[in-house]
Design a protein that fits this description.
Blueprint (H helix, E strand, L loop, with lengths): L1 E2 L7 E2 L6 H7 L20 E3 L2 H6 L8 E11 L4 E5 L13 E4 L12 E10 L2 H8 L8 H7 L3 E9 L16 H25 L3 H22 L5 H22 L3 H22 E3 L5 E3 L5
Parallel strand pairs: 3-4, 6-8
Antiparallel strand pairs: 1-2, 4-5, 4-7, 5-6, 7-8, 9-10
Helix pairs in contact: 5-6, 6-7, 7-8
Amino acid sequence: MAYNAGPMNVWTTSGALSAAALAAATLLSQGQPAGQAPSPRGPQPILPVAVSALTATPDAYLGGMVSLTATVDQRYGAAAFSLVQGGAAKSESANQDVLVVAPLLTAPVDPGKYVTVIGEVIRFEPADVAAKMKGTAPELPAETVARYRGRTAIIATSVINSAMTDLAKRLPPPMSPEEEALSRQMKQIGPGFNALRQAVTAANGADAAAHAAALNKAFGEAAAFWKPRPHPDAIQLTEDARRETNAIATAAGRGDWDAVKASVPKLQSLCSDCHGKYRERLDDGTYRFKQPAR
């Protein structure tokens, strides 16, 4: 269940990639001229680079974030693999391939297939990798460690396959039936709120009253999710939202636009408060109901 952009942050079942990963996935193997190292000050840009440029001038990229689209050459366990430029044969790729290590891969990468990798360029030393990855570094065969020690490698934050799936992000657990019901309600509330705002902007009393009444009903149905849970403030937020939508419907029906315009921001604030307390961001960039701490 992810939140779409918009005033009400609608929950959807989309597993879309993060904006940074999706944007970088379109930067297909563009070489970066040597000597243009990322700036050490402030957030570093993600530089598109080719494997050939990375292996030819590694010092220009060390410590920076890059994206590269290249061919998977060999796999080394569950979450490490090498990349080569284009379709370079293994016999030709000695010292021209780049090792990629990731905290996890939710599915294996296929040798001979293209992937887009986003991550930090390092010089491969197992101890340094372990320190940087803070307990998530994959175990590598001894011969792999010996082959790549001291060479250019990438600690991946994203590994995007041809299906545009980021394999380096944890898949969210399945939603419970109650969460699915809440998601359906949120998908009604988000567009409903946008429609309400448009009706208020147009000073259309009939439409504003109708949209407010529909939101009131949706909030009432969403309240069923909270009633069996120990979150009285969430129940109160839902009831307050129903109070505001009822006030909007009544005021719009009598043409009291000052009252309507006073209630709409209150409704948006209630929704923002609830989202801030009761949603959490998962590794794949989507959001769910925040589970109570165990």
